[in-house]
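One such given next:

>
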Amino acid sequence: MTFLQSPFSEFALFLLICAFAGALFVRLRQPVLIAYIVVGIALGPTGFGLVAAHDQIDLLAQIGVTVLLFVVGLKLDLNHLRRIGTVALATGLGQLGFTVAFGFALILLLGKAPMEALYVAVALTFSSTIIIVKLLSDKREIDSLHGRIAVGFLIVQDVAVVIAMMAMSAFRGSGGPDGQAALGDVVLSIAWRLGAVAALMYVLMRWPLPKVVAAMARSQELLLVFAVAWGVALAALGQWAGFSKEAGAFLAGFSLASTPYREAMNARLTGLRDFLLLFFFIDLGAKLDFSTLGAEIAPAILLSLFVLIGNPLIVMAIMGYMGYRKRTGFLAGLTVAQISEFSIVFVAMGISLGHIGVETLGLTTLVGLVTITVSTYMILYSQPLYARLAPWLTVFERQRPFRELAVERQRRSGEQVEAIVFGLGRYGSRLLAQLRAAGVEAIGVDFDPEAVRELRRQRLPVHFGDGEDPDFVGSLPLTQARWVITTFPQWESNRALLHALQAAQFNGCIVGAVRDVAHGRALEAAGVKYILNPFDDAADHAAQRLATQIHSKEDLS
């Protein structure tokens, strides 16, 4: 077709097809990444053979994986790591060890080579952070006990996948994976490189990076460009230094995770990440060779059952032993009943290193398609599923679930966010300070880095970010807050904030501070219950004080 003679025309067609296919899969309540893989299969050599711009798609796919790993590292705040707790670490490591050990033995029994069995077994351990967080957020369970525990051991998995990538990439420079290189040489190579990376990251995070990021944060667009540039640069540096690109990108994100601008960067990168990953999954589907997959269907079904049943069982067993109720263990266990995009990235890296063949990628992709599809419905309908299985799950619960009881007592006595103030100019910052002084647990939000730094110096709890960005607004503790107060001066900004709050399913009261009557009427029409007019309110208050003084003087005379 003459229309498809240029890469631009190809991309136009691919994007249109992906958009409609994605809409269909969303209607079926399935992750859109499955739609992208199906589109890649349909457009690749197995299907209609329309993919010709392989180099361009491959480049965008590599950048997409880089941004994905950068975002994962960006979420790995050291303060959050300290709060993960024993249960997330024990559950994460326990599930990883169980899946690798039993999965490796099972894959060997299926007749696979040891190196292929090792790659697939490791790939089976990783669950999709993106899909799980999205599903839990949609169900408003991200702040629940099982949601917070699940996010904790998903972070453990994210760290493990990067270490696994580093370990397997070390074979490339050590004589290959077939035994020529001594295990000690590989361990030593990983150890000194990790030491060098740790020292470099410490220096960067301690001195130059905070100042550089603060300068970039003066412009939202510049902050986004810097984040992508930093991620891609460290990915390239990681590849040059003998690590994988993925490990370098992860470290780039991790180096910025402790800065006050990480939520804003994460929100800005989310859409870009999803768009670029589209090309990774298209590229993956286009490269699948179905002539080699016929023999992989039976192993894929067996491994899928292993992931769908075995992974949740080990999570329930560990959490039950540690003192959690069977319901919490069951709901958290469902989040590991699938493999992730990291699994596919990990196996694809093994192919690029020459450790395994393309048939391994086909097997892993089939397991991914099956487990992601089935586990999505398991999570969406987790409550009725638990109601049916509860009588058989008593074995996973202690007579006294002591740890969950302690968590409930701690949550009852802990502080809650009661109000969130958007816009911290002179009026908003004063409002936040007075609310805090009055005993209201309020936090503030602003996208001016100078204002954020100044208010933090005053020990006020302030988040840096754009209140018009739905992804950023959704990351705030809206499930705890009962009040949202906006002091944005423009109606357009308030309209975007109201849409973001609606998307996050905020059900509390909204207060708007306006400068003119028209703005107030617009907010009232949009459903804002309480309107503040700083000028009118100040004039009314001043008039009352003056009237009191005037009357008192008249009385004295």
Q: What stands out?
A: The chain has a mean pLDDT of 85.
